[in-house]
Amino acid sequence: MDYSSPLVLELFDHALQLYLDSEGFFDITVAPLSKLWGFADKKYQVPQPEEIEDALKYIGMDKIGKENGCLILLPNMELDWGGIAKGLGIDLVSKALKEMEVTRGFINAGGDLFCWGKNPSNSLWKIGIKHPRKKGFLGVLSVSDLGLATTGDYQRYFVKDKVRYHHVFNPHTGYPSRNKQSVTVIGPKTLFCDALSTALFASSNPEKIIEKYPDYGAIIVDSQGNVFTVGKSYLVNPT
């Protein structure tokens, strides 16, 4: 990757701000943890504590420098853009289409999405929120001119000794976050929905993070299956 590319630097600046606003729970430097736990090559394992401790030496966006318009990484550091790049891509595409005077549309990139205008029935777009443990939906959102992204423990995971280990890490501990099943974030820009869904999932205090983003709201399913919301309220119709 070209760490001097203007688009990469723009994405990094957004990621850094989210890292700071979330007290490090959104962190694009978690790639060594993904590799260690086997999510990069699907050779899943539960690492030894000393292996996790060693990987944590390379975690933290505060370890990244910027010099002459180029990002500087420590040896053995790797970046994982998966929690933010897709959202930016959706925002750029939707912006380009609007500039081409496309008055309504729906972009879905693997669960991250943005819709604007009205649907073909001339009403708000209907977006189903997947149930993290059952078939079907938790509820249906009626939205327009909004982005949406979900982070869940059901998307990439393995089970060992009856324990579910998933790909959303607590960057401070090096272990998968334990207190939630899914987080769906709704708001004006898909980039922030994408990153905030990861941050809120990893954090034990999502209310504190979402307060800094007043135009965004989240629907959270905790580890016991309880559903609650934080931040701005959006209409959800039960199924």
Helices, by number, come to: 6
- Count of β-strands: 13
Task: Return the CATH architecture of the largest domain.
Answer: Roll
Poorly predicted regions: none
- Range of helix content: 25-40%
Envelope shape: globular
In CATH terms, the superfamily of the largest domain is ApbE-like domains
Task: Write the CATH fold name of the largest domain.
Answer: T-fold
**Share of β-strand residues:** 25-35%
- Which CATH class of the largest domain is shown? Alpha Beta
Q: Kindly, what is the distance between the CA atoms of the first and last residues, rounded to a whole number of angstroms?
A: 43 Å
Summarize the structure in short:
By secondary structure, the protein is an alpha+beta fold. Helix content is 26%, strand content 28%. It has 6 helices and 13 strands.
Describe what you observe in this structure.
Helix 4 packs antiparallel against helix 5. The chain is α+β, with helices and mostly antiparallel strands. About 25% of the residues lie in helices and about 30% in strands. The protein folds into 2 domains: about 5-70, T-fold, CATH 1.10.3980.10; about 85-239, Roll (T-fold), CATH 3.10.520. The longest helix is centred in the N-terminal third of the chain and has 16 residues, at about 5-20.
Write the topology of this structure.
Elements: H1 6-21, H2 31-37, H3 49-55, E1 65-67, E2 70-72, H4 85-99, E3 105-109, E4 112-116, E5 125-130, E6 137-143, E7 146-152, E8 157-160, E9 163-166, E10 180-187, H5 190-202, H6 206-210, E11 217-222, E12 227-231, E13 236-238
